[in-house]
């Protein structure tokens, strides 16, 4: 068995020394050291080369909770206005078509706000149908709330060879919230893509337009455009699904964009279709690279319960050559024993370990007697470094201010949401998997909602 090695040791990188966590400073050296240890942790990835199988961690079939749309004005509405239907693309479609007219959503920090509006709505529905307080009870049972893209990055981290990923984490009333942390420099880098990369990114969106229609089974016919063109690309517009699932012991609420549905949408995930593009495969090396990429395709779709992935293969110049449909659940079998092989069980096992450790760290920190702050308002930086492992550290005041970004937030959570969910129950609840590791009875001081601004729902159209 490839058991994940974990260690908790003090990190002593120069950047840590240069930026002490001012808020938690204490006088005595020993106390200081202990406190520091509780603020910095590292986790190692499991081995991905082991030929032995890992114990399987069950992943529950996702249940759709609700769907919502972003309009061209980027307003969230609880409608299916942005839902599209799958249609076969025209053979040899030009994926560069319409590039000059692409309305590109500006790069910005991807907050959890939309997902939290959905969570609020699910809670309201529970209150209305089961009785007052049911929504709160429901949320208390949810271990993690995050976007699908973040969960994909966490689960595939043991196999990641290139991209570092930074997350912000908060633990509020028994639930872990995770958002991606994008520095200003990283945002600028994403906004100012080199022209070649920008066009390649567009190919993916253009494929979505060629493969979708506003009506099931009927190719789009838009004046002034070739038959089958689904409409000029506007990346503000998205159709999102929020699902509930369970990874091992952890109930997860995950939201993510769904590209289209086949034939009809029944409220379930069984007709969802994910669209992907990839360079045409010309040799064994290309094939191995594609098989590696299939891990991300698989995980991204599996997490939302998307049963089918349509891959459009293209030339470097963006001409569609072929399309191939993959059944999501069959993908792991396709790669087994191949050069680019991966095992989803290594990912699920790691995911369970990661969530358990993270929650243990955040829960233990809530007991840190040297701190006078409000534990549920703390923000942690979780860094997934390729091949190295994960570091978890508590942000200092400057770090938290940077995350808040001068908006009406507590950490990265909008204040209206934080006020709703924090401090309702002073018991932070047991850690994720084994209750024994963290001593019970760790009281989180209640928040003082009266000192907060009134909830603001501005900009939301629900
Ligand atoms: P491909 O999927 O064909 O790569 P998604 O597939 O997740 O629905 O995203 C649709 C398209 O958005 C992608 O097409 C790609 O063009 C672009 N895209 C998504 N995530 C990206 C990322 N991290 N970097 C660059 N482009 C991305
Ligand atoms: Mg897609």
TrEMBL record:
Residues 1-56, 420-462 are annotated as: Disordered. This is Decapping nuclease. Residues 1-11 have a biased composition (Basic residues). InterPro entries: RAI1, RAI1-like_fam. Residues 16-26 have a biased composition (Basic and acidic residues). Residues 60-417 form the RAI1-like domain. Belongs to the DXO/Dom3Z family. Decapping enzyme for NAD-capped RNAs: specifically hydrolyzes the nicotinamide adenine dinucleotide (NAD) cap from a subset of RNAs by removing the entire NAD moiety from the 5'-end of an NAD-capped RNA. GO terms for cellular component: cytosol; nucleus. Its EC number is 3.6.1.-. It catalyses: a 5'-end (N(7)-methyl 5'-triphosphoguanosine)-ribonucleoside-ribonucleotide in mRNA + H2O = a (N(7)-methyl 5'-triphosphoguanosine)-nucleoside + a 5'-end phospho-ribonucleoside in mRNA + H(+); a 5'-end triphospho-ribonucleoside in mRNA + H2O = a 5'-end phospho-ribonucleoside in mRNA + diphosphate + H(+); a 5'-end NAD(+)-phospho-ribonucleoside in mRNA + H2O = a 5'-end phospho-ribonucleoside in mRNA + NAD(+) + H(+). It is found in: Nucleus. Keywords: Hydrolase, Metal-binding, Nuclease, Nucleotide-binding, Nucleus, RNA-binding. Its cofactor is a divalent metal cation. PANTHER family: DECAPPING AND EXORIBONUCLEASE PROTEIN, DOM-3 RELATED. One of its GO terms (biological process) is NAD-cap decapping. It is an enzyme of class 3 (hydrolase). The lineage of its organism: Eukaryota, Fungi, Dikarya, Basidiomycota, Agaricomycotina. It comes from the Eukaryota. Residues 44-56, 449-462 have a biased composition (Low complexity). Coiled coil: none annotated. One of its GO terms (molecular function) is nucleotide binding. Its main location: nucleus.
